[in-house]
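User: Predict the structure for this protein chain, please.
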Amino acid sequence: MSSDGGMVVWWMDQPWWLRWLITLVPLVVAAILLVSSDRFYPWLWAIGGLMLLVNLFLSWGEILDKVMGRSK
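Assistant: Here is the predicted structure, written as structure tokens:
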């Protein structure tokens, strides 16, 4: 795997709905593992939380466009 951040750039270029779907994957997996086996995987929560924060930042303009009707 290259260290140029290609996967991150690919994720950031996806449509908002696909970014959110990909973001929820590690969080859902971590929650299922926590409930089913009572094991806490902090790295899954950290990855999901970081992706969630970045996704909120990336989606903020799109959210404002939909809710407030801001024109470009």
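The helical segments are 6-12, 16-37, 42-68.
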